[in-house]
């Protein structure tokens, strides 16, 4: 930085306007490089559900690196700073206004990726820690009642069809998930003698990262083989036509030459 300032001072005033944009560009590039070297903070939910009911207790945690004794944290909710929250962990009783996107940043971290939280005012809610799962993972679902009131005779539905039933346990798990487990899920349960129905949520099970890479590799290999075969066929056809068309032309030229020699003189 000192060297850049000295160079800037030694340049004649008439040429300094040319160096100003370059200096600014270099400063921004240096800042971007320093930022890229920093680790990224991570927002975690406890409990891990991305949907909660109104009045549920929610804890947000900002994880990352920091200096010993310095836990100063910047929190963002829907892009706006939460100036009153400066600790890496904070707990609140959820309201509908708390729905949205949360991000955080610690002293020695760049801004985290966003985490979505949806707060719903209802009697019953089917909860999950994520909406997209990889093949082979375990899908975790929980049928949750407002203020955790006693719930019984709980049924889990997939695409309108009952798939699991619990007398009292509200949690469901689907191990080794595959594409057949994708779909719309909801749950029903009884609060006393009153049957409640949750809203539906859409679960997607996608191929694993390794399977995706292998699929893309096979796609490229197949594409290259097809292009090679097309090129080979096209080249072979070209030389075949060239050879077979050239012979009649040569025969026609020879025939024409013979006729000219046989023609009567003077005609």
Automatic annotation (TrEMBL):
<dbReference type="InterPro" id="IPR036179">
    <property type="entry name" value="Ig-like_dom_sf"/>
</dbReference>
<feature type="transmembrane region" description="Helical">
    <location>
        <begin position="217"/>
        <end position="241"/>
    </location>
</feature>
<keyword id="KW-1133">Transmembrane helix</keyword>
<dbReference type="InterPro" id="IPR013783">
    <property type="entry name" value="Ig-like_fold"/>
</dbReference>
<keyword id="KW-0812">Transmembrane</keyword>
<keyword id="KW-0393">Immunoglobulin domain</keyword>
<keyword id="KW-0472">Membrane</keyword>
<feature type="domain" description="Ig-like">
    <location>
        <begin position="39"/>
        <end position="120"/>
    </location>
</feature>
<keyword id="KW-0732">Signal</keyword>
<dbReference type="GO" id="GO:0019770">
    <property type="term" value="F:IgG receptor activity"/>
</dbReference>
<keyword id="KW-0675">Receptor</keyword>
<dbReference type="GO" id="GO:0009897">
    <property type="term" value="C:external side of plasma membrane"/>
</dbReference>
<keyword id="KW-0325">Glycoprotein</keyword>
<feature type="signal peptide">
    <location>
        <begin position="1"/>
        <end position="33"/>
    </location>
</feature>
<keyword id="KW-0677">Repeat</keyword>
<keyword id="KW-1003">Cell membrane</keyword>
<dbReference type="InterPro" id="IPR003599">
    <property type="entry name" value="Ig_sub"/>
</dbReference>
<protein>
    <recommendedName>
        <fullName>Ig-like domain-containing protein</fullName>
    </recommendedName>
</protein>
<dbReference type="InterPro" id="IPR003598">
    <property type="entry name" value="Ig_sub2"/>
</dbReference>
<dbReference type="GO" id="GO:0032760">
    <property type="term" value="P:positive regulation of tumor necrosis factor production"/>
</dbReference>
<dbReference type="Pfam" id="PF13895">
    <property type="entry name" value="Ig_2"/>
</dbReference>
<dbReference type="GO" id="GO:0001788">
    <property type="term" value="P:antibody-dependent cellular cytotoxicity"/>
</dbReference>
<dbReference type="InterPro" id="IPR007110">
    <property type="entry name" value="Ig-like_dom"/>
</dbReference>
<dbReference type="InterPro" id="IPR050488">
    <property type="entry name" value="Ig_Fc_receptor"/>
</dbReference>
<dbReference type="GO" id="GO:0019864">
    <property type="term" value="F:IgG binding"/>
</dbReference>
<dbReference type="GO" id="GO:0050766">
    <property type="term" value="P:positive regulation of phagocytosis"/>
</dbReference>
<keyword id="KW-1015">Disulfide bond</keyword>
<keyword id="KW-0390">IgG-binding protein</keyword>
């Amino acid at each position: 930085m000192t060297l850049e300032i000295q160079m800037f001072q030694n340049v004649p005033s008439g040429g300094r306007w040319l160096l100003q944009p370059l200096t600014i560009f270099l400063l921004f590039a240096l800042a971007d490089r320093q930022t890229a070297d920093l680790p990224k903070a991570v927002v975690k939910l406890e409990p891990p559900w991305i949907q909660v009911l109104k009045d549920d207790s929610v804890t947000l945690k900002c994880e990352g690196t920091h200096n010993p004794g310095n836990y100063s944290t910047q929190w963002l909710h829907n892009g706006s700073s939460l100036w009153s929250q400066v600790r890496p962990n904070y707990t609140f009783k959820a309201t509908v206004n708390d729905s949205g996107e949360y991000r955080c940043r610690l002293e020695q971290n760049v801004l985290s990726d966003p985490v979505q939280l949806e707060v719903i005012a209802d009697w019953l809610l089917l909860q999950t820690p994520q909406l997209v799962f990889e093949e082979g993972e375990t899908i975790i679902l929980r049928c949750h009642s407002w203020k955790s009131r006693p719930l019984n005779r709980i049924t889990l539905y997939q695409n309108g069809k009952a798939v699991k039933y619990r007398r009292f346990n509200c949690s469901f798990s689907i191990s080794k998930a595959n594409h057949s487990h994708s779909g719309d899920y909801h749950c029903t349960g009884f609060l006393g003698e009153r049957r409640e129905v949750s809203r539906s949520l859409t679960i997607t099970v996608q191929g694993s990262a390794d399977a995706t890479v292998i699929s893309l590799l096979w796609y490229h290999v197949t594409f290259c083989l097809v292009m090679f075969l097309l090129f080979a066929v096209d080249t072979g056809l070209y030389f075949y036509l060239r050879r077979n068309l050239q012979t009649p032309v040569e025969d026609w030229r020879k025939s024409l030459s013979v006729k000219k020699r046989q023609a009567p003189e003077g005609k």
